Amino acid sequence: MEGWDNLDTGSATRSTVVSVTGDENVVLDLENDEATRGQNIRYTVRGSTAGATHYVAIEDTDFRNNQVDERVFRDVEDTVDRGSLDTNGDGQADLAWAQIEVDDDTGIGVGQIDTTYLDDTSVDVNLYEADQNLSDIAENVGSTEDDLSLDVSEGELSIDSPAGTYIAGQEEDVRGTAAQGVDDVALYVRDQGDWELVDVNEDGEFTQQDLISVDADGEWEERDVTLSQANDILSIPGRYRIGVVEAVDVTQNGTIADTLTTSEFSSATSEQTSIIVTEPTLGGGNSSMIAPLGGSPMAMQNQNNTTQEDGQQTDTTEDSTWVFRTYNSQIAVEDGTVEVTGVAPGLDEVLVVMIDSRGRTVTETVSVDDNDVFEEDDIELITREGRELNEGQIRGMVIGLGRDTVVGDGVLPGVDDADLPRSRRGLRASAQVSRRNRSTSASPTRPSTKQVATT
What residue spans carry the region label Disordered (predicted)? Predict the structure, then answer.
């Protein structure tokens, strides 16, 4: 060491190691050599001259569905530019590239790889010589300064709902989770053949609107989907498979695949589970509406209710769900109304019908809430024409449409369509015909009450 003006001499008190490199020592480093798809992986170019630029590239065979996307290189840190390159003039990109500039202060160039766009495979990341242009690279893609392999594995998906059993016609919240880097997912169902896309928005078309977005917390959800309408497979009772797929694996040029083979489904980032479809029902659990009203299995649930039989007070403590609220299967004339409640999983509405011994008919459409419960207070026992139902035995029933959403065989007298509202007209018409053909009527069983039974 040389100097001037009385330099001190003696043993060194601070030292450092200086590495001298040349162009032949340029290397590429990866932060990790393994990644779950969706992770960002930092890479470093070192051993080059300060201010020099290098191209880093990934070829098409390492992209998902061989679709090159320049966004695989993030526009961060020392990235000067990025893009894609067609090396053979066929109009299709053969690789994605990023141009990295070596920082004057640090002596290294730093960039990031977004693995979202990569296939779940061993990905080759190539580094080219300093100041080489894209034309040179296109002529000899394999002539690299350095290269490393990045092992990419697919991220996990899950389905939390629906789980287990689905009732045809019922609205369901579909939801689950997705690994980091998954932006959108698509739902598919399968019977015994190919997987079929679920029309999540129920508009009758398969479009980008049927994709479900993944939020920042890695959760995806679509509320109030009637699965039996979103795909015909789920409208028929049976055991099926329902699956979720990362959208990028089933989208080509903005179009979602409406069917997938089992191989295509398995090779994509996907998850599946079993689902059992059952018929819509009325009542509570597997109980039937066709039971004597006020009796098992639809007995009244009112711990304070008491009845008088033979002068003795009896507590009614049945635990099953009642439909028509009565006292000893009777309704007082003075009240003139009846309360109806029950459960109807898979249905949007039910039709309450009461018919007296003369064929007079009262009908009321009652909505089913989100908890599958229908309830209507104070249904008046008065016909549409303003006539009270006859004293005596009254037949009461609750009607719900099956999974085909059609009443009976689809033909009702006097109406054009066999849906639930129009069935009210058909019932009234049938009752009027029955009343005209009736030569005698039943005698009232109790002059002060209306007895209610079901059919």
Answer: 414-455
Strands 34-36 and 146-153: parallel
Check: CB of residue 303 under 8 Å from CB of residue 319: no
Compute how many other C-beta atoms are within 10 angstroms of the C-beta atom of residue 379: 19
Residue 356 pLDDT more than 70?
A: yes
**Calpha distance 133→113 (Å, rounded):** 21
Domain ranges in the chain with CATH number 2.60.40.1930: 23-152
The residues, ordered by sequence, that sit 6+ positions from 128 with a Cβ below 8 Å of its Cβ are 54, 55, 56, 57, 136, 137, 143, 144, 145
Residues of the chain with CATH 2.60.40.10: 157-278
Higher pLDDT, 298 or 47: 47
Q: Please tell me whether residue 232 adopts helix, strand or coil conformation.
A: helix
Give residues with Cβ within 8 angstroms of 22, minimum separation 6.
none
**Residue partners of 179: CB distance under 8 A and separation at least 6:** 36, 37, 38, 155, 156, 157, 218
CATH 2.60.40.10 fits 157-278, yes or no: yes
Look-up of token digits 């590495």: 19
Give the pLDDT band (50/70/90) at residue 30: very high
CA dihedral 340, 346, 350, 355 (to 10 degrees): -80
Q: What is the pLDDT of residues 280-296, one digit of tens each?
A: 776 643 343 333 333 33
Give 255's contacts (C-beta < 8 A, 6+ positions apart): none
